[in-house]
Amino acid sequence: MMRLFLKIFLQLFFAAIILCETVIGNDKWNDSSNSKMASTPKFFAVALGKVDNKKLCNSANLCDLMILSPTSYPKIPSILEEINKKIIILGYCETMSSDAGNEEFMELNKHEDWFLHDGNGRRINVYVNKTNKRFGMDKTKEGYQEWLANKCKKIIVAGYDGIFLDNIGVVFGYKNPFKYSGFPVGIDNSNWQKGSIKLLEKVKAAVGKKSIVVFNQISGDDNSKLFGLIKNNNGMDAMTASISFVDACDGAMKENFFDNGKQINEEAPKFLDLLRILNKKNKYTLCLSRGNSARDAKTLYCLYLLALDGENSFFSYQIDYKTITWFDFYEKDLGEPLNEYSNYNGIGMREYKNGLVVVNFNNMVKLVNLPGEFSNDKGQKIKRLTLNGKTGELLFK
User: Fold this and answer.
1) pLDDT tens digits along 131-156
2) Between the N and C ends of the chain, which has fewer C-beta atoms within 10 Å?
3) Inside any domain, residue 80
4) Do 254 and 361 fall into the same domain?
């Protein structure tokens, strides 16, 4: 009798373990409040519009997260989750403007107060250098906020894991005459920021705790200084606003990360510090750059690695908004970071378990003394590194 009891007990015990493992294994991501995963690189792809199946599958195979257009893919293509069962897929949602050619414009067109207007009462055209049929929307209007929140809820119901809200921005900047037909009346930086935060909160409440809400974009620079807009304009500076906006949802993207490699200078650590703050909160941070240069991609990847922390920090370098461009150095196993990055005389440095990340923020070539012996990409053992200005390098132990 005792043997039979013991046998049944063991069977139930191991069955419970298997069941527990199965439930955990089906999660696409873990609740950040209950777990801590390794701080290792993760990758994402932006694939907007209809995308060639080969490119879609390539991104799903290589990436941890993708952004798709629900208008092109009302349902997530099943092949993507067959390739990568844990991939997170966000549905794209435009917030700043609406195109007269879109099906949903018929509904928006019924609400004149949802549109931005100039001093003459005309609707403001967005991207005036490309079209005259795309109109700016007023994100401070409660009706428009609720409409967007309902739209996002439908995207989640259709099977998406979360929402990517494009063109939220953190500083009001409608002064660019090459992009906008005029400046909106009745709005300043302060109420624009408050309205944007309310929008993020409403979308998050609509889609629920288990769905991800990420917006574009955060900034460490106060772009209100551009085109003559009064600095701050009674609102938050860009860095403070970035943190406040992210606190209202799950994370944010930085599109054109360091201006795709063109804006690397002594001010770079300021934005890296912002990234580090958000990463330590375990928020989703998506660093996106575009181009066709392996050298630029490596430098931008190194900048991303300087601030990497938590489990929700992602990187992508793409030629276009269709698929990720993959490089061999992504596959190098750096392990986890051993410390925070340092910045001494314009040299950013961070040691990982299996290597070292070095970035030269200066314009000039620098000879860098390394904290030990490392191997370069040619397999040579070095203790000093000659590094060109505005470039980064990966070294290994």
Assistant:
1) 889 999 999 999 999 999 999 999 99
2) N
3) yes
4) no
Alpha-carbon span 239 to 304, nearest angstrom: 18
Q: Phi-psi bin for 372: left (phi > 0), alpha (psi -120 to 50), beta?
A: left
CA distances from 82 to 57, 66, 156 (A): 10, 14, 19
Q: Strand 284-290 and strand 162-166: pairing?
A: unpaired
Answer whether residue 46 shows pLDDT above 90: yes
Q: H-type helices in 84-141, by residue range? A: 105-108
| φ/ψ (deg, to 5) at 46 | -100, 120
Do 322 and 338 lie in a common domain?
no
Give dist(CA 297, CA 291) in Å, integer: 8
Block residue for tokens 């929307």:
137
Give the strand pairing for 391-396 and 355-360: antiparallel
Do 295 and 391 form a contact (C-beta atoms < 8 A)?
yes
Q: Which residue has the tokens 């005792």?
A: 2
Q: How far is CA 338 from the centre of its chain?
A: 24
Tokens of 7: 């046998």
Distance, in Å, from the CA atom of 90 to the CA atom of 370, rounded to the nearest integer, reads 41
CA distance linking residue 260 with residue 264, whole number of Å = 9
Helix (H/G/I), strand (E/B), else coil: 226? helix
Strand ranges inside 191-336, DSSP E: 212-216, 251-255, 284-290, 313-318
Q: Are residues 76 and 118 in the same domain?
A: yes
- List residues bridging with 134 in a β-sheet: 99
**Residue 395's CATH number:** 2.60.40.1180
Q: What is the residue range of 349's domain?
A: 334-397
- Angle between helical axes of 189-207 and 238-247 (0-180°, round to 10): 20
Are residues 278 and 218 in contact, defined by beta-carbon separation less than 8 angstroms?
yes
- Alpha-helix runs per DSSP H in 26-141: 53-62, 78-83, 105-108
Region class of 54: left (phi > 0), else alpha (psi between -120 and 50), else beta: alpha
- Whether residues 200 and 140 share a domain: the answer is yes
pLDDT, tens digit, 9 for 90 and up, residues 278-305: 999 999 999 999 999 999 999 999 999 9
Distance CA 182, CA 131 (A): 14
Question: Cα separation of 64 and 86, whole Å?
Answer: 7
* C-beta separation of 91 from 155 below 8 A: yes
